[in-house]
Amino acid sequence: MNFVAPDFMPVLPEIFVLTMACLVLVVDVFLEQQQRHITYGLAQVTLLATALLLLLTFARVPVTTMFGHYIKDAMGDLLKFCICLAAAAVFLYSRDYLRQRDLFKGEYFVLGLFGVLGMMIMVSAHSLLSVYLGLELLSLSLYALVAVDRDSPVGCEAAMKYFVLGSLASGMLLYGISMVYGATGSVDLQVIADVIAKQGTSNLVLVFGLVFLVVGLAFKLGAVPFHMWLPDIYQGAPTSVTLYIGSAPKLAAFALLMRVLVDGLGAFQNDWQQMLIILAVLSMALGNLVAIAQTNIKRMLAYSTISHVGFLLLGILAGTPEGYSASMFYAIVYVLMAVGAFGVILLLSRTGFEAENIDDFKGLNDRSPWLAFIMMVVMMSMAGIPFMAGFYAKWVVLQAVINIGFVWLALVGVVFSVVGAFYYLRVVKCIYFDKPEQSESISISRDVEIVISANGLLLIILGLYPTALMTWCSTALLN
Amino acid sequence: MGFEKFLFYVFALILIFAAVRVITVRNSVHAALFLVLAFFTSAALWLLIEAEFLAITMVLVYVGAVMVLFLFVVMMLDLNTQPLREGFIKYLPVGATVAVIIVIEMVLALGSGYFSSESYSLVARSADYSNTKELGSVLYTFYVYPFEIASVILLVAIIAAISLTLRRREGTKSQNPSHQVLVSRDDRIRLVNVPAEKKH
After folding, report:
1. A406 in the Ramachandran plot: left (φ > 0), alpha (ψ -120 to 50) or beta?
2. pLDDT tens digit string along A23-77?
3. Which of B25, B54, B80 corresponds to the end of one domain?
4. What are A's interface residues with B at a Cβ cutoff of 8 A?
5. Mutate which of A208, A210, A211, A212 to test chain B, going by most B C-beta atoms within 10 A?
6. Helix, strand, or coil (residue A72)
7. B155 to chain A: which residues are within 8 Å by CB?
8. Does the pLDDT of residue A271 top 80, yes or no?
9. Which of B153, B160, B167 has the CB atom closest to A136's CB atom?
10. Do the domain assignments include residue B30?
């Protein structure tokens, strides 16, 4: 057997995260409860250093290593960079919330770091094996994180539901993977694409595998009709965990769709396009309509996530480089909005009080004008009001869909985002036009205030000057 | 029909029978035991295609470790399966329809002859061929990346299990071995001077 050691340099960010996660795990064991901030600090240092490392080693040309299981390319590096920053923001917003609830434990940060590692593996996956393993690593960390508050019955129920449904989805995905492997004889996405190019797209077994792959991925994304788990988990999990689940994993899921459907099974575009159209239309419809009826803001945002997933799928199903970069832009902006929205919810909660209902936002303007302004920006951006980042994101995605001739699909998207605007603006109305039910002022630490301000302002800046990020996305996908 | 083919059909029939029994028997201990039977026969099927490492691992890991644990849990927990059966008849038509459609589709897709034994014949190996060695040589070289990720997944599973179940409660009567070792004679024995009883 002829074995040459692979090039480890491209995998450096993953190796770094893994090493640091293990280090944090060990260091945390030796700390007293009062010293827990060291764990938190180390986790933050890890994430920021990884982001820096990714910038320094940014891929100009795609490199495949680890015998075809790993790829380092510009799309992956950009997404991983965003994942690290999003996770750092998540940890920062969660810090005080966790402290007040006796959840400020090492496990939260260690599992969070392992989840980030799982996402990075998913983003860089170049074989179905690393796709599956990365997904499992992320999911397993998330299951445990949802149950991190062990004494909360709602949290445990949510974790249990997530675990059972997530395992089912993994089973679907694995079955699809085994079919694709059986039909092509390889798990390497490049080899799969080559084999399909050679043998044509008439193979029924491959289409059969593709269906299961799409079902598995849709389950993980939370697209209708595979969305059942999402509202319950968003509502049941501690808000800091909801923030984690609702943000960075969407970037990884986008990358996964790109790798599996576009890179690996790109020849079957006609087949998966139809499947994604069904998923996208149903997601936009159900997500926006059901969100109207919600009084719990976490549940409302869960349904809004489902509708955003529908929009994300629109760009991918367009099947053009323009559509992919629109989708990527959408994913990044969505993460910014989700981090901002759940961040504000976290900051409003205090010891013994969860800001969970839309009513809790009543008169927020009187209590904290700046926080109210940021929440308004986030909500208007989610609704797609012009001059916000969310508007441009929707705009480019719809443009990509129109360019391939699906005008009706774009119309459906527009109609349902108008419907969606209702419940986002209702929150804004609560904030500015209703009398406050509580009068306590809201105290936020300085660093959190700076980051959440940057988060909100970024949504305005990206809405006014989207070209920079858009260019990054399209050049990253061109490579 | 060769002897090997005969064996295959025997094992395959037992496997299907055991798998069906797993989900149809009422007693959950019986179900777990039928699952053991199913694992055993699938290990035998693997032996038939000369994948002896997989066969032995199947018996060791699934039968020896996983199922024993399963049996323990099933016997310890007094599960009431009655609520689970509620609405079974109500949802049966819908469920059965979906299942039948899926089965028909699967038969159409997979029965198209793609996976027939003609297109996937066994590769003949010499008698001294060890697939354990072959597996090992690719597992730690060409598949080292997935292998390492799998190890990280196991680590996360350990962390998750410990963080979810480890509780330090006040007042539990658990033993502390290091304290037990440090005990000296004086801590435990008190000499009491008992005056001897007078003779009557």
Report:
1. beta
2. 999 999 999 888 999 999 999 999 999 999 999 999 889 999 989 999 999 999 9
3. B80
4. 1, 3, 6, 11, 18, 22, 25, 66-67, 69-70, 105, 107, 110-111, 114, 117, 121, 127, 129-130, 133-134, 136-137, 140-141, 143-144, 147-148, 150, 182-183, 203-205, 207-208
5. A208
6. strand
7. 22, 114
8. yes
9. B153
10. yes
Nearest chain B Cα distance for residue A250, angstroms: 20
The DSSP code for A474 is H
Between CA B186 and CA B126 the distance in angstroms is 71
Tokens of A373: 């302004």
SS3 per residue for B18-30? HHHHHHHCCCHHH
Give a yes or no: residue B25 inside a domain.
yes
Q: What is the pLDDT of residue A1?
A: 66
Model confidence band, residue A204 (pLDDT cutoffs 50, 70, 90): confident
SS3 A285: helix
Both B75 and B144 in one domain: the answer is: no
Look up residue B176 and give its amino acid.
N
Distance from CA of A295 to the nearest CA of B (A): 30
Chain A residues within 8 A of B110 when measuring between CB atoms: 205, 208
Cβ(A179)–Cβ(A212) below 8 Å: yes
d(CA A137, CA A14): 13
Domain residues of chain A, as ranges?
9-478
Q: Is B88 exposed, middle or buried (0-12, 13-18, 19+ CB in 10 A)?
A: exposed
Same domain, residue pair B4 and B62: yes
Which member of B109, B146, B164 has the closest CB to residue A129? B146
Shared domain for B76 and B3, answered yes or no, is: yes
Residue B73 sits in the same domain as residue B130: no
Instruction: Identify the residue among A2, A156, A204, A213 best suited for mutation to test binding to B, counting B beta carbons within 10 A and taking the highest.
Output: A204
Evaluate if residue A336 carries a pLDDT over 70: yes
Closest-CA distance, A92 to chain B, in angstroms, reads 22
Q: Is B41 exposed, middle or buried (0-12, 13-18, 19+ CB in 10 A)?
A: buried
Calculate the CA dihedral of residues A354, A357, A360, A365 and round it to 10 degrees: 120
Structure token pair of residue A46: 């890890």
Number of domains in chain B: 2
ipTM of predicted assembly, 2 dp:
0.93
Residues belonging to chain B with any Cβ–Cβ distance to chain A shorter than 8 Å: 105-106, 108-110, 112, 114-115, 137, 141-146, 149-150, 152-153, 155-157, 159-160, 163-164, 167
Q: Are the Cβ atoms of A111 and B137 closer than 8 angstroms?
A: no
Cβ of B15: how many Cβ atoms within 10 Å?
Answer: 18
Please list every residue in chain A whose beta carbon sits closer than 8 Å to the beta carbon of residue B145: 6, 11, 66-67, 69-70, 130
Name the phi and psi angles at A393, rounded to 5. Answer: -60, -45
What is the CB-side half-sphere exposure of residue A298 using CA atoms within 13 A?
24
Average pLDDT, rounded, for chain B? 86
**Does any domain span residue B188?**
no
**Residue B158 belongs to what domain range?**
126-164
In this prediction, residue B186 carries a pLDDT of: 85
Using 50, 70 and 90 to split pLDDT, how confident is the model at B188?
confident
Domain membership flag for residue B101: no
Helix, coil or strand: residue A188: strand
Where residue B45 sits, what CATH number does that domain have?
1.20.120.1200
Phi, psi of B168 (to 5 degrees): -105, 100
Nearest CA in chain B to A66: B145
